[in-house]
Specification:
The chain has 13 helices and 4 strands. It has 360 residues and is mainly α. It has a 4-stranded mixed β-sheet with strand order 1-2-4-3, sandwiched between helices. The longest helix has 38 residues, at 122-159.
Length: 360
């Protein structure tokens, strides 16, 4: 992405106040109109291999499940490779768990490590140094295995022609209701250890940082990694503009319980943005990426052998995004800004899936 500086946009772009929401029907009185966007942007990224960021990511995986937004499969993978913990290692991990599970801490603490920011206090720094000391040798063995792959990925991603996606990315920006002259900087992409599929993440208060997990992903799957990266860039745009978030907050959710720490806001936002781009081919960006016919066919296959209640919310999001995908493409290709109707359609799709999931 290399969309230009989110911080500067607050000075140069008009605030996004194009809708007024009524309390009665949650419908906008008027919508932002599509406009010609004078983007001074390119899709250039700064790919970074940061050993410290990788250590922080790996260490929290060793805790097992500690948060609702926890990567269970990657955790199991690296825990199996670790074997039995010593008493010193167990003690260090429990101290890390206490830090991460403090109210308001959690992923903010991790992202401070990803972003090489100072510690909030001396106690946190002391615990982190204890963890590094306890796991230094084992992590070094892991790093010796993972870092060559990360270097290969860095080379391939730097060679990849992201500029071919620039017109489509501009269309995504219009779809998300962004103002003229939005100025975003080239984001830093921290390349991290992974399982067999690429994943990524952003955080709203780290406006210029993306983590991309790719170390064990075969290089032949670079189109999937590119799809993940554009998905995370769309999050950066949404975090900066906030227009879609306003629509989601105004939506009328059905009385269906969402548990495990998940929230309707997350389900809706991910459904919309995963219909825009993800590691799969059946997205707006996926249509433009180099997927084989068999990959496209497999990605469109949403059949499942077990009842939906046996699957997690991420699988439901995948199905919902696929069902919303045709409408999302119609909006984007028409230069139409996301509106309450599109959000309501996402809510209805999710509600149908959740009802099916609850059915006996």
């Amino acid at each position: 992405m290399a969309v230009t500086n989110p911080r500067a946009s607050r000075k140069t772009a008009a605030p996004i106040t194009a809708i007024q929401l009524t309390s009665n029907d949650f419908r906008p009185r008027f919508l932002p109109k599509p406009f010609f966007i004078k983007f001074d942007m390119s899709l250039k990224f700064e790919f970074i291999i940061d050993k410290g960021a990788n250590f922080a990511y790996w260490a929290q995986l060793l805790l097992g499940s500690w948060s609702w937004y926890f990567e269970k499969e990657n955790s199991q993978l690296f825990l199996e490779e670790m074997g039995t913990f010593s008493k010193e290692e167990q003690k260090a991990l429990e101290k890390l768990r206490m830090i991460l599970q403090k109210k308001g801490n959690q992923y903010r603490w991790l992202w401070q490590r990803y972003g090489n920011q100072p510690f909030d206090n001396g106690q946190d720094e002391e615990v982190y140094n204890l963890i590094k000391s306890a796991f230094d040798q084992k992590f070094q063995l892991l790093w010796n295995k993972e870092s060559p792959s990360l270097k290969q990925w860095k080379t391939e991603l730097e060679r990849y022609n992201f500029e071919k996606l620039l017109p489509a990315f501009r269309n995504i920006a219009i779809f998300l209701g962004l103002a003229e002259n939005l100025d975003l900087t080239h984001p830093k992409i921290k390349l991290l250890i992974s399982g067999n599929f690429p994943t990524g993440a952003t955080r709203a208060d780290f406006k210029n940082l993306i983590i991309l997990n790719v170390s064990r992903v075969p290089l032949i799957k670079i189109s999937r990694a590119a799809g993940v990266l554009i998905h995370e860039c769309a999050h950066l745009l949404n975090n900066e503009g906030g227009f879609m978030n306003k629509l989601i907050e105004a939506a009328d959710y059905p009385n269906i319980k969402v548990d495990g720490g998940y929230k309707w806001k997350y389900l809706i936002g991910e459904t919309v943005l995963k219909s825009v781009s993800s590691h799969r081919a059946n997205t707006y960006i996926g249509k433009l990426l180099d997927f084989s016919d068999s990959e496209r066919k497999n990605d469109e296959d949403l059949s499942h052998k077990l009842p939906l209640r046996e699957y997690g919310y991420e699988f439901l999001i995948r199905i919902a995004a696929s069902r919303l995908f045709p409408e999302t493409i119609a909006y984007i290709e028409a230069g139409k800004v996301i509106d309450q109707m599109h959000i309501n359609n996402a809510v209805n799709i999710l509600a149908d899936l959740l009802r099916e999931r609850e059915a006996v």
